[in-house]
């Protein structure tokens, strides 16, 4: 039985004469943290963007398992891909891509407000996430009034506030010094796999990759085999974050304490937002086309559990 939350088969993508992906098979289990590494131009970002429904592969399939069924990401039209990204995926980029005119709490809350959550409830939830990521008291600062590491924590809060089961991060620590990078990576793991969620990140940094539960390496658009490589994903493991273990739960992310920010909004309940697919507007389900459509020999070659590294 395929228990993957994301399963890609035979992904190819070409930009003119440039082959970005040359046939990628990959299974990602719920609760895993997977680092994608490889030389510049090897296809890391293209792979992550394909998995996240940002770019459409030329060929191949991407199946996203949800509590209500399997979504074929590669077959969605742009509107449904946009809906999927907004509701089911969180994103953290190297520069955070935060809105400088907005405060920290507004930058986080906007992710919920785009989904229809009222402003006060969205900001209350956003403030709880900021506090959980060590930013209590900084809610009303604009992004330019935060350090690079603090801004990345805001980006992590924004990626998580909707309860997205998968977070995609592209060089989330790339612009940070090594100490801040370690702090932000700890916060990212705490907020994702520490809550039973799944993290897929692109990095050039071996120390960042080593903190993930496994690493895949790309070369010329393919996952490359490694000595000792295995053909299947390793079971998810609790990643050390330097903090007390967090019980596996979906939402709320951390106990909703009454923080100073929230006290200003007393009476507003902390929104309970367990992850669930919207029942009213389901994605097209490939009912007649069971996944995977065909057998794929040599699945996920080149997958190396970090614990098994030489
Ligand atoms: N939109 C695009 N148009 C044309 N070529 C592209 C486009 N996106 C990616 N490519 C090319 O596809 C190949 C893979 O790019 P990709 O960004 O996935 O690599 P990467 O491993 O993430 O590189 P880096 O580490 O430098 O970010 C590269 O040769 C790149 O130039």
From TrEMBL:
The protein's name in its UniProt record: Putative ABC transport system ATP-binding protein
GO molecular function (one): ATP hydrolysis activity
Skewed-composition ranges (Pro residues): 281-295
Superkingdom: Bacteria
Biased composition range(s): Low complexity: 237-249, 259-280
Organism annotation: Plantibacter flavus
Keywords: ATP-binding, Nucleotide-binding, Transport
GO annotations of cellular component type: plasma membrane
């Amino acid at each position: 039985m395929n228990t993957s939350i994301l399963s890609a088969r035979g992904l190819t993508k070409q930009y003119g004469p440039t082959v970005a992906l040359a046939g990628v098979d990959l299974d990602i289990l719920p609760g895993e943290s997977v680092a994608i590494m490889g030389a510049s131009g090897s296809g890391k970002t293209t792979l992550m963007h394909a998995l996240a429904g940002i770019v459409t592969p030329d060929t191949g399939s991407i199946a996203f398992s949800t509590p209500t069924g399997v979504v074929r990401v590669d077959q969605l039209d742009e509107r449904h891909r946009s809906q999927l990204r907004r509701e089911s995926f969180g994103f953290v980029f190297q520069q955070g891509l935060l809105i400088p005119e907005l405060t920290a709490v507004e930058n986080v809350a906007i992710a919920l407000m785009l989904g229809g959550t009222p402003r006060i409830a969205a900001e209350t939830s956003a403030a709880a996430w900021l506090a959980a990521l060590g930013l209590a008291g900084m809610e009303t600062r604009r992004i330019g009034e935060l350090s690079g590491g603090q801004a990345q924590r805001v980006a992590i809060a924004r990626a998580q506030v909707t309860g997205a089961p998968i977070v995609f991060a592209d060089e989330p620590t790339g612009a940070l010094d090594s100490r801040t990078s370690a702090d932000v990576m700890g916060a990212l793991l705490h907020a994702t796999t520490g809550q039973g969620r799944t993290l897929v990140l692109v990095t050039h940094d071996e120390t960042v990759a080593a903190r993930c539960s496994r690493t895949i390496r790309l070369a010329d658009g393919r996952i490359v085999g490694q000595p000792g490589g295995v053909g299947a994903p390793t079971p998810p493991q609790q990643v050390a974050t330097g903090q007390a273990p967090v019980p596996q739960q979906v939402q709320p992310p951390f106990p909703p304490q009454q923080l100073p920010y929230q006290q200003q909004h007393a009476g507003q309940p902390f929104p309970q937002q367990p992850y669930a697919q919207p029942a009213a507007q389901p994605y097209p389900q490939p009912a007649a086309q069971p996944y995977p459509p065909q057998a794929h020999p040599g699945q996920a070659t080149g997958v190396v559990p970090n614990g098994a590294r030489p």
